[in-house]
Amino acid sequence: MIASLTMVGVAIGVATLIVVMSVMNGFRAELLTKILGLNGHFTAFPIESKFTDYKDAVTTLEEVQGVKFAVYYVEGQVLASGRGGSTGVSVRGMDAENLEKLDLLFNSAEQGGFDSWDENDGVAIGYRLAQTLGVGLGDQVQIINPDSGAMTPFGSTPQIKSYPVRTIFNLGMVEFDSLFMYMPLKTAQDYFKLYEDQLKPGQPPLDPMASDEEIDAAYERIYQATAAEIFIDNPDAIPLMRQRIADQPGLRPFILTDWQQRNETFFSALQVERVVMFTILSMIVLVAAFNIISSLVMLVKDKSKDIAVLRTMGATRGAIMRIFSITGTTIGVVGTLSGLVLGLIVAANAEAIRSTISNTLGVALFPPEVFFLSALPSKTDPTEVTVVVFMSLGLSFLATLYPAWRAAQYDPVEALRYE
């Protein structure tokens, strides 16, 4: 019974470590995938002049070795209002060519789609934002921008426009599904007034009495973008890629911010949490190892007469030590292997188990509003699993040394004196 309980303790400790580390790895990987699925590894902000050459700049950026692709966009903060409520949102304007590069977004449409994106006059919103605003496909969303309205003697008036909802997407990350609104690039440029009218090259100065038609024919509208997102092949090669982008000939000046800078505090906290959780949960295996010591000490005490008989029959101290070492190590090996199998099964079905428990008890486990993700991710790292298994086996073997040594020191004369 004691050996069985000790074995269960080892198995639970190993399984807990594997499950928790797998969930934390999955949490980090899923967050990284979602964050870098919309936001590039680098964000390039133009300096020295307005970003009117955004198409040429993106083409030049994609020529840099190690750059997967780059996209340009327009961005602004507005107040969105629908039938059910209102909230602040981040509006991004992108054309269909760049939108298709973002697989995470392009393939996440649950209602509607991104077909004929550049030609429509609607917007795409996350499903949580749609719930907040109380709108569905085809409903109007009113967006209000206090900075780009008409100028009056009393200051600027807010710009208010309504757009139909053409697409509702689900990225699986609460922050993105409740914050972002996408619209065609030209629509966003017009709304935020990111353009300026310039005389066409070679156009003589206009007569002050020129008609509206003559003015329209003489001027051309130059559109601008806000920034560009750069996606690279290796997300960890930030210093190298920063240098390559800076050295790219023909590229206009940019200020580059990378994903590590933008999320430094968040991912550092995740890393610290992983280390702390591994250390704390390792104590479970350590407690199980102490149980092996106590069970073997009791076994040695109970088998003292048998040890004496074996010694009188010619068994050496080393043989006695090996017997009890094998006994304790067997408990550790069986417990570790059982915990390994149990941990891998639970880690592989973490979301299904969470959903079952939540539905059975009626309690929200890992609510998405707190943990950012709509599902419980799990990603098993073979290296970490190997470390856990060898740590458990090592502690189990070390736990057998003292009881086995005590058994080997038994004096058969003293053990059989009163028999």
Word description of this protein:
- With 419 residues, the chain is an alpha+beta fold.
- The protein has helices at residues 2-38, 54-61, 96-99, 103-106, 127-133, 174-177, 185-191, 212-218, 238-247, 259-262, 264-302, 304-312, 317-348, 350-361, 368-371, 382-408, 412-415, and strands at 42-46, 67-81, 86-94, 109-112, 123-126, 140-145, 151-152, 155-156, 159-169, 180-184, 195-199, 219-223, 227-232, 254-258.
- A 6-stranded mixed β-barrel has the order 2-3-10-5-9-6. It has a two-stranded antiparallel ribbon with strand order 7-8.
- Helix 1 (2-38) packs parallel to helix 13.
- The two termini are 28 Å apart.
- The mean pLDDT is 83.
Strand content: 15-25%
Average pLDDT value? 83
Q: Which assembly state applies to the chains in this document?
A: single chain
- The structure class reads alpha+beta
Number of strands: 14
Strand order of the largest sheet: 2-3-10-5-9-6
Number of domains: 2
Topology readout:
Layout: H1 2-38, E1 42-46, H2 54-61, E2 67-81, E3 86-94, H3 96-99, H4 103-106, E4 109-112, E5 123-126, H5 127-133, E6 140-145, E7 151-152, E8 155-156, E9 159-169, H6 174-177, E10 180-184, H7 185-191, E11 195-199, H8 212-218, E12 219-223, E13 227-232, H9 238-247, E14 254-258, H10 259-262, H11 264-302, H12 304-312, H13 317-348, H14 350-361, H15 368-371, H16 382-408, H17 412-415
Parallel strand pairs: 3-10, 5-9
Antiparallel strand pairs: 1-13, 1-14, 2-3, 2-6, 2-13, 4-9, 5-10, 6-9, 7-8, 11-12
